[in-house]
Each structure stands twice: as structure tokens, then as C-alpha cells.
Amino acid sequence: MSLLDAQSAALCTAPETPAIAHLKHFTHRTLRITVSDGRVFLGQFAGTDKPLNLLLVNTEEYRVQGDDGQYDGRFVGQVMIPWRIVTKAEAQGRGEPVAIARGQPVVSRAAMDNTMYL
């Protein structure tokens, strides 16, 4: 059983709360995560853990190079991004991007306490 299959199975057994349903909506979608040092990660959302660190797979990392604003990218694969350094999170939507507010967790900590984590 692959990691994603195990995580999906764990999600199926979690109690269905509005917060969990919202989080499930983003699973396997492409996210663009901007962190405090200016890097941008573009990858497929695989899950989160109790402190809300984000797990992305098939991820590319981009850094702004020089004053001309050119991006230098590289493939980094699977990454765990601490939520405390995330300044912006965007999901590729059907049409326009969906922003995830930095000050409002996707899933409340109370909801996370009673669930199986990704």
C-alpha cells in the first residue's frame, strides 16, 4: 500500500466534520505555497499533520534570482513545509485560484485532535 493510499484510508475513517470535509477538498490538488524567505513551492497537496505542516508531493521550488525578477526552479519531490513560515497558500481551482488565509487554519486544532492525521 502506498503512502497516499494509506493516508486516504485514514481520512475515510475520520469523523466527517466541516473542517475535515474542507481539507479533503484540497487533497490531490495543486497548491502554490509562498514562504517567508520568498521561495515558492508548487506541488500536489498530500496532507497535513497536527501542527498543520503541509506535505506536498511532486513539488518544484522556485526562487527569485536577481533584480529582474526571474525565477530559478528545481524539482524537489516531496517536501514538508512548516505552517509557521507560510505567508500565502493558493489552490489551483476550477477557474480562478482559491486563497487560503494565513491567519485562519484550514482545519481547526480542535477538529484535528479527534482525527487521524495525514
UniProtKB/TrEMBL annotation:
Cellular component per GO, a single term: NatC complex
Start and end residues of each Sm domain: 23-81
Organism: Schizophyllum amplum
Name the UniProt record assigns to this protein: Sm domain-containing protein
InterPro entries linked: LSM_dom_sf, LSMD1_Sm, Sm_dom_euk/arc, snRNP_SmB/NAA38-like
